[in-house]
Amino acid sequence: MTAKTVPVDTFDLVIFGGTGDLALRKLLPGLFRRYAIGQIPEDSRIIGVARDPLSDQAYRERVGQALAAVVQADASLQPRLAAFLDRLGYRALDATKDAGWHEFADQLLAQGERIRVFYLSTSPGLFVAICNRLQAHGLNRGSARVVIEKPIGKDSASAAVINDAVGSAFSESRIFRIDHYLGKETVQNLMALRFANILFEPLWNSNYIDHVQITVAETVGLEKRAGYYDTSGALRDMVQNHLLQLLCMVAMEPPAAMEADAVRDEKLKVLRALRPIGAEEAAQMTVRGQYRAGASNGRAVPGYLDELGRNDSRIETFVALKAEVDNWRWAGVPFYLRTGKRLAERVSEIVIAFRPVPHSIFEPSAGPVVANKLVMRLQPDEGVKLWLMIKDPGPGGLRLQHVPLDMSFAEAFGVHQPEAYERLLMDVVRGNPTLFMRRDEVEAAWNWIDPILAAWEGVRDAPKPYTAGSWGPSAAVALIERDGRTWHEDSA
Ligand code: NAP
Fold first, then answer.
1. Is there an atom of ligand 1 within 6 Å of 20 CB?
2. Of 229, 304, 396, 417, which shows the fewest CB atoms inside 10 Å?
3. CA separation for the pair 316, 235 (Å, rounded)
4. Is the CB of 17 within 6 Å of ligand 1?
5. Beta strand 286-292 with 318-324: parallel, antiparallel or unpaired?
6. Positions of CATH 3.40.50.720 in the chain
7. CA 23 to CA 31: how far, in whole Å?
8. DSSP for 87-99, written as a single string
């Protein structure tokens, strides 16, 4: 089956940080796939910006090398590679200096009115300088829009500084705060499952749902991100954005329409209903860990402090916490969140654990009646499994079995599922902000995170150690088992 593709309008996309890791590993491969599929008009342009003094040709070669892996994985893309590279240009600019900006602005404005997207794929420390210069040179006018990457600050105060600076150059409707988790197929399927089926919504509340688990587990360690990560940690890097956004998608009320502000209003209400976790609650409701040496994917790996080259860091590489949404729908339903580096498996999933049936009519010999679960997997192998009880097939009396109704998207539909960045980039060009975060959402998320950070600051103990390749510190198991529940495993 071929995916349906509707071409977008012609655009100029400027990637600040066009030579960086994110641009070369995610943005340009995503754009290439969209181009190869026919979604990007031929007269669109993609312009990389960084300080390195490269010619257009040298930039195309660098991007060509980065795209080699994409072509290797899908040989059908090869014939479109040269034409895609021709769409690319490069401009050497320092975001913090004025030199070259006039010429750059003239070059862009010479095209006349067309959709202009500025993707800030640089350290957030440059957002203010870039937005000020875009404004000074009139590049923020008309339908120009800006995309900003996480981290949007390290607490509410610093997020407000970034939001103010970007907001002084672009109106809110033209600011696209990207959280690529929202671009994942499964997350949109969560909306479809909830709001396009009659089956789930009547059960989607504390009467029928026992609890929710959200896990985002990585097997990688620090990679090359030590400088950034050791000033951030898992709570800021993952929970404040990705995990809370997923929680919002599960917990929000049905929006009146699949329209940006309607969806974002509902997510905001969830963030504002999160019960605060302050100094008194943090010890009971949160666990932070830091990995020690262990094994990952069958090879020995060093601990966090060894990777960092310092032994005094108290930054957490793992967080588990119990969140509660204080509203009518979710009263008494815990949301257990966990995320970490160097865990046993790379997996991101949302588990909706339903309550058990109120009474079993079966003989003990039939086996236990296990509660239903809806498991939405974001990666790897995006898909949905609905765990049900059925009769063990065949003769020999009535025995019960807990089995998944399994819908792996790739197998079920046989189409290339666009990567999150592909979809979101095209949404920016279309001007559709539904899957992007509004300023008040980002700030509400920080308002919930700030007291947890302050509580951790206030205690002297170090994060709990865990062995690389495990599922985190034993305290994370205790966090959920204290409530008589367990973390989901695929066969459970
Ligand atoms: P990176 O590899 O360090 O790239 C930074 C880019 O910014 C380079 O192209 C660099 O080129 C350019 N740059 C640095 N200083 C500049 C200046 N003064 N003026 C103009 N350009 C400048 O970083 P990254 O990993 O791509 O990450 C970019 C942003 O996305 C960061 O905020 C990061 O936290 C966020 N992010 C990254 C990922 C990821 O997977 N990498 C995922 C999520 C979010 P020159 O040095 O030549 O100027």
1. yes
2. 396
3. 8
4. yes
5. antiparallel
6. 11-180
7. 10
8. TEEEEE--TTS-T
Residues of CATH 3.30.360.10 domain(s) within the chain? 184-417+438-481
Q: How far apart are CA 435 and CA 305, in angstroms?
A: 36
Residue 471 neighbours by CB under 8 Å, 6+ apart: 217, 343, 344, 477, 487
Q: Is the C-beta atom of 453 inside 6 A of ligand 1?
A: no
**19 in contact with ligand 1, CB cutoff 6 A:** yes
- SS3 readout for 391-441: ECCCCCCCCEEEEEEEEEHHHHHCCCCCCHHHHHHHHHHHCCCCCCECHHH
Q: Which CATH architecture has domain 184-417+438-481?
A: 2-Layer Sandwich (3.30)
A 10 A CB-CB count for 194 gives: 17
Rounded CA-CA distance 391/320 in Å is 36
* pLDDT tens-digit readout, 400-453: 999 999 877 666 666 667 789 999 999 999 999 999 999 999 999 999 999 999
Which pLDDT value is given to residue 189?
A: 87
CA 375 to ligand 1 center in whole angstroms: 35
Pick the catalytic residue from 180, 242, 359, 416. 242
Closest Cα to residue 251, out of 266, 240, 237, 241?
A: 266
Q: Which CATH superfamily is domain 11-180 in?
A: NAD(P)-binding Rossmann-like Domain (3.40.50.720)
Cis peptide before 364 (omega within 30 of 0): no
Task: For residue 137, indicate whether it is catalytic.
Answer: no
For residue 245, the CA-to-ligand 1 centroid distance in Å is 24
The Cα angle at residue 419 between residues 413 and 420, in degrees rounded to 5: 115
Ranges in the chain, pLDDT < 50: 1-2
**CA trace torsion 267, 272, 277, 280 (10° rounding):** -170
Quickly count: other Cβ atoms within 10 Å of residue 83's Cβ: 11
Both tokens of residue 110? 């010479």
Give 347's DSSP letter. Answer: E
Ligand 1 center from residue 20 Cα (angstroms): 5
Q: At 180, list the tokens.
A: 């690529």
What pLDDT, in 10s, does the model give residues 351-367? 999 999 999 999 999 99
Ligand 1: does its nearest atom lie under 6 Å from the Cβ of 149? yes
